[in-house]
């Protein structure tokens, strides 16, 4: 059985981003401050005991592959 983990951070990507967290594709106009905001949100969630299952991180992937205003897992 896999141990449940508390969240460590939130990372942002885009479908055509080949880099690591903290580097963003300009078409989404996400500033570098988003990384700091994601870290703050993750720390708050961690303090509240939020579990991400067997993973340490939540990845948010920005894409043009799904219609506007929709979210997909």
């Amino acid at each position: 059985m896999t141990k449940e983990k508390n969240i460590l951070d939130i990372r942002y990507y885009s479908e055509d981003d080949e880099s690591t967290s903290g580097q963003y594709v300009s078409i989404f106009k996400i500033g570098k401050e988003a990384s700091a905001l994601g870290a703050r949100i993750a720390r708050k969630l961690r303090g509240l005991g939020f579990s991400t299952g067997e993973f340490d991180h939540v990845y948010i992937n920005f894409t043009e592959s799904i219609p506007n205003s929709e979210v997909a897992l």
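The two ends are 23 Å apart (CA to CA). Confidence is low (pLDDT under 50) at residues 19-26.
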